[in-house]
């Protein structure tokens, strides 16, 4: 197992290299530049800025310079926020974004898996119909619509929660609505996968054998069904957690959460190259690492799986 983990960790390096190369090339190939403004700058000013930030160099020189700086831990300057570096932007927002993402992930797992299990155990009955209805609504409803509805109902109408802000554990009520809004889609997706996997497991021979032996239903569900049904469910948890941790632009913007998610989308529109590269690499690294964690969890969930 240790050898497998080491090999997978080493494979992350070329993966990140390819992601960075493709992102860097597409980013510079896109029309426009970081100095495009509503009030156009003079040609001399643009030339001076390009010279200052190295944007007048050939593309391969710019890429090699970025790689060298990144290896040293320098993510470069921000072209939009002149008084802040990309390191400052990431450092200021990553904690809040990760906090929100982990809270939403835990809520998704706590609600999504039991919802799928109940739907499968009560197949074609009222609990199954209700769980399926909730899953369809969760997947079909855009996150910004869900966020606005939560704000209108719970903040404006009932006034149970504040309309904006994020103070963490200092004021837990500020975390409730953003966490719920961000977790609705993952809850629905996890519930769907769990239900489908549980229904497949119920038709397995070992489950029928356990039932014929007269074992208690609870024992059959916990020992024989859920553990085996979780393998395909675990597959989607890694990418979901990576998505949630790296931030949601819409949720962070609507609820004024000071995370890094909103910087990502705004940086794309404004060609803030340093921020684009930093956020993309962060997301790619999170995906790669969490996929490795998922593969390791396979061996824990199913002892028949062995890595060499």
Description:
- With 308 residues, this protein is mostly helical.
- The protein folds into two domains: 2-71, no CATH class; 93-301, MetI-like (MetI-like fold).
- Helix content is 74%, strand content 0%.
**CATH architecture classification name of the largest domain:** Orthogonal Bundle
- Major sheet description: none
| Helical fraction | over 70%
Low-confidence stretches: none
Molecular shape: globular
Distance between the termini: 6 Å
Number of DSSP strand runs: 0
Mean pLDDT: 82
Number of helices: 12
Secondary-structure element order, N to C: HHHHHHHHHHHH
CATH topology value of the largest domain: MetI-like fold
CATH superfamily of the largest domain: MetI-like
Give the SSE layout.
Blueprint: H1 2-29, H2 43-53, H3 59-71, H4 86-121, H5 126-140, H6 143-157, H7 173-201, H8 205-212, H9 217-245, H10 249-254, H11 261-269, H12 273-301
């Amino acid at each position: 197992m240790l050898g497998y983990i080491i090999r997978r960790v080493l494979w992350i390096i070329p993966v990140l290299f390819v992601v960075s190369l493709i992102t860097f090339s597409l980013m510079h190939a896109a029309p426009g530049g970081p100095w495009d403004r509503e009030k156009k700058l003079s040609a001399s000013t643009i030339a001076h800025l390009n010279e200052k930030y190295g944007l007048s160099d050939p593309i391969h020189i710019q890429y090699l310079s970025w790689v060298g700086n990144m290896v040293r831990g320098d993510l470069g300057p921000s072209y939009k926020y002149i008084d802040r570096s990309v390191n400052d932007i990431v450092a200021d927002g990553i904690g809040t974004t990760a906090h929100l993402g982990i809270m939403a992930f835990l809520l998704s797992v706590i609600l999504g898996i039991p919802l799928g299990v109940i739907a499968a155990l009560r197949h074609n009955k009222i609990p199954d119909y209700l769980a399926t209805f909730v899953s369809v609504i969760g997947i079909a409803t855009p996150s910004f619509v869900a966020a606005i509805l939560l704000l209108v109902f719970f903040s404006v109408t009932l006034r149970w929660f504040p309309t904006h802000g994020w103070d963490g554990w200092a004021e837990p009520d500020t975390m409730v609505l953003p966490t719920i809004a961000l977790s609705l889609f993952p809850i629905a997706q996890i519930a769907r996968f769990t239900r489908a996997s549980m229904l497949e497991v119920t038709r397995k021979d070992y489950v029928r054998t356990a039932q014929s032996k007269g074992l208690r239903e609870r024992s059959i569900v916990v020992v024989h069904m859920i553990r085996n049904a979780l393998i395909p469910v675990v597959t989607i948890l890694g990418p979901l957690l990576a998505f949630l941790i790296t931030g949601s632009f819409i949720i962070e913007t609507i609820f004024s959460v000071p995370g890094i998610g909103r910087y990502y989308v705004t940086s794309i529109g404004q060609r803030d190259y340093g921020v684009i590269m930093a956020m993309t690499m962060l997301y790619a690294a999170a995906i790669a690492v969490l996929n490795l964690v998922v593969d390791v969890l396979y061996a824990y969930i199913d002892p028949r799986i062995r890595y060499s």
